[in-house]
Structures are given as structure tokens and as C-alpha cells.
Design goal:
single chain, 153 residues, mainly alpha, 4 helices, elongated, transmembrane, Mal, T cell differentiation protein
Amino acid sequence: MASNTATMGNLPSGIGICTTIPDILYLPELIFGGLVWILVACTLVVPANPQGWVMFVSVFCFIMTFIWTVVFACGGHHNKGSWAAADFAYHGIAAFFYLSASVSLAKVTLDLQDDSQNFQSYQLDISAVVFSYVATLLYFIHTILSAIRWKSF
């Protein structure tokens, strides 16, 4: 991987998003966000409200991150500082959304712990909670690194 300190003032495009920090985090964000989406969709939605929020967050962030990745890959940002600020803002919002979804999903999962009839849903929810917290961490790291890049413009 090339040195990323010299290119922090530039927004990558094309294959450059696969080699620069923080843009290299797009793919793991998509993978872990998709896993949360799939695992929550496979479970029994007992309390609809918290599970609905988790589904909204995972689907919203998956779609927006995919669109964001395509825009950056196609060079639609034209290396403007406003796109660096928007990248910081989006990932900050996504990190906050995922944190709130992770906490509510963990609470629902803890409530399912004593229900022996839904053991498979309980196991799927445990996996979803773990992947949700990993996605939260990825979005948070991306937010910090995007803030550093934004300030270097």
C-alpha cells in the first residue's frame, strides 16, 4: 500500500478508493452492514419497533455507502473540499445510527436469552449484534479519518 499521508488532501477516484485511507473501509462497511441486514431479516421480529430501526439503519447505510462508493469510484466529487466535508458528515451520521441500532439490537437479544423456543433467532441476533458493533466501529474510524482528510483541504 502506498504512503497515504501525502495524499490526504486529495479525494481518490477509480481504483484509488481501494488503496487509500479512509476509503479502503468502504468494502468492509458494505460487507458487515449487509451481514447485519441479512441476519436481522432472517430472525423472528418479536419487538417490531427496535428491529425495524435496525433494519432501516442497515438498509439505509448499505445503500448510501454503495452510492457513495460509486460516486467516489467514478470521480463524481471532482476533488472538491465540500465532498470531503460531506464524507465526514455522512460517516458521522452513519456511525451514530449504527451505534443506536446496535444498542437496541443488543437489548432485544438479551430479552430473547431466556426464550428456549426461539434459540435459532437468538443465535442469529447474537451474530447480528457482533457485526453491528463491527460496522459501528468501521463507520466511526472512517469518520475520524475523513475529518482528518477534510481538515487537510
